[in-house]
Specification:
about 475 residues, alpha/beta, Rossmann fold, Alpha-Beta Plaits, 3 domains, six-stranded mixed beta sheet, 16 helices, elongated
């Protein structure tokens, strides 16, 4: 396979470094498995006169708590209990009320809990006050997601991006018992405490480290730009998979490309981007990119830090929004992904570019499946979702055809006849265009139907004087059979 097809982000090839990373990950996993954890979902009660800056989530509280517990389990924490706390209002000092704090403190003492995960964003003051009142280490949703990303990062680029986001998070807190600055990757900064490798730091030291990381990431961005330029030198469109974490993107990626990307039933199983080539039904080839999963309330610092990685999405010709249609919160998850796409400057309603892929239909009961098919049939062709099962392979041919249709809309159809002796010309066309149809005449001449990217059209027309351009894009679709 050509080097421009597979471009994972700067993998570490040093075997000793890999062994060291593995040993550290094993140690963190063992430490986490012995960390008794309580997950708290402090959710505002729905109230008609609530201030507009305190928006109540569309998700059911039980589903939100289940997701928060899943985040904790994703890094092997020993979750002993999970509890919803309904709030009338958020307390500036402690987020939750004193009565509930006393009740939780008793539970924490009774179960010997050492870590409390709050499924919300806490201010530094709220975090410190809760730790004092509860007698346990407290982290919020942002801190937990950062730790998951730290565990999942497999490349130097991923590690740098996690560390940058972690430093941004820590900068306003200036906690003096964390060890993140001396680590290559950000795993389990919250499990450290006084007496364990303290680093006396201040804003200047953090800022200096952030500047250094940003410089290194600029270098990574330039390298990624060169990789992208090498891909642009061949007529392979880029198709990016996006979606809520655990929607089945990696399983779909593996099924389409016969790859072996980590695909597990866990949140954020994939962090670093992976690219592979894929052949479409009519002979065209694309580069398929698997990206990090999104999640509700994704910290803005992570979106910013991972922008270099997400540029694969920004520059994609086609975006596949993969949704776990069997999940009870599928609609809310889809809205969260749409929101993040908008922050990246992508219009999720641009159906010429974005295709909704409703995954996991194998997990749906027959009655609901019939209802979904009815919903899909009533939508316009351009906005019609593609129903698939990445596990069984059902619907994948329709997905490939939908991808090919989107790509064809921006490309021109060309017909020409090559003389028998022009083997070099035929090779050039296979390298610089998509051969949709090829037929050899009795005299050896080759009749070709090509699909050509806009940036290659002038070259084709100049090099082959007998080439004929088809008049309309619709005609191109008809001939290609899409």
């Amino acid at each position: 396979m050509n080097s421009y097809i597979e471009t994972p982000a700067s993998p570490v090839h040093d075997q000793s470094a890999q062994v060291g990373w593995s040993s550290k990950a094993d140690a963190e996993k063992q430490l986490a498995s012995h960390t008794h954890t309580l997950v708290i979902g402090p959710y505002l009660k729905e109230r008609p006169n609530r201030a507009p800056d305190k928006i109540v989530s569309l998700r059911a509280p039980e589903a939100r708590l289940e997701e928060a517990s899943g985040l904790a389990l994703a890094i092997d924490l020993d979750v002993l209990a999970a509890q919803i706390v309904f709030l009338s209002d958020i307390r500036p000092a402690t987020y939750i009320g004193i009565g509930k704090i006393e009740e939780l403190a008793a539970l924490i003492k009774d179960k010997d809990i050492s870590l409390v995960v709050m499924d919300c964003a806490l201010s530094p003051v709220q975090q410190r006050n809760l730790e004092k009142s509860l007698g346990a280490k407290v982290i919020d949703r942002t801190g937990l997601i950062l730790e998951i990303f730290g565990r999942r990062a497999r490349t130097r680029e991923g590690a740098l991006q996690v560390e940058l986001a972690h430093l941004t998070y820590q900068k306003s807190r200036l906690v003096r018992s964390w060890t993140h600055l001396e680590r290559q990757r950000g795993g389990f900064g919250f499990l450290g405490g006084p007496g364990e490798t303290q680093i006396e730091t201040d804003r200047r030291l953090i800022q200096e480290r952030m500047v250094k990381i940003e410089r290194e990431l600029d270098g990574v961005k330039k390298t990624r730009g060169l990789h992208r330029k090498s891909r642009e030198d061949v007529p392979f469109p880029l198709v990016a998979l996006v979606g809520y974490t655990n929607a089945g993107k990696s399983t779909l990626f593996n099924r389409l490309t016969d790859a072996t990307v980590l695909a597990q039933d866990m949140l954020f199983a994939t962090l670093d981007p992976t690219l592979r080539a894929l052949k479409l039904p009519h002979g065209g080839r694309i580069i398929l990119s698997d990206t990090v999963g999104f999640i509700s309330d994704l910290p803005t610092m992570l979106v910013s830090a991972f922008r270099a990685t997400l540029e694969e999405v920004i520059s994609a010709d086609v975006i596949l929004h993969v949704r776990d249609i069997a999940h009870e919160d599928a609609q809310a998850q889809g809205a969260d992904v749409d929101g993040i796409l908008k922050t990246l400057g992508i219009d999720p309603q641009d159906h010429d570019r974005v295709i909704e892929v409703w995954n996991k239909i194998d997990q749906i009961e027959p009655e609901r499946r019939a209802s979904l098919l009815d919903i899909v049939s009533q939508r316009a062709d351009a906005s019609r979702p593609i129903l698939v099962s990445a596990v069984t392979g059902e619907g994948l041919n329709g997905l490939k055809q939908a991808i090919e249709t989107r790509i064809a809309r921006g490309r021109s159809l060309v017909q020409l006849v090559l003389p028998p002796h022009d083997g070099a010309g035929l090779h050039w066309l296979y390298t610089n265009a998509e051969i949709l149809h090829r037929n050899a005449d009795e005299d050896g001449a080759v009749q070709l139907t090509l699909r050509v990217a806009p940036e290659r059209l002038d070259q084709v027309m100049r090099r082959f004087s007998a080439a004929r351009l088809q008049p309309t894009p619709m005609r191109a679709l008809e001939i290609s059979g899409v």
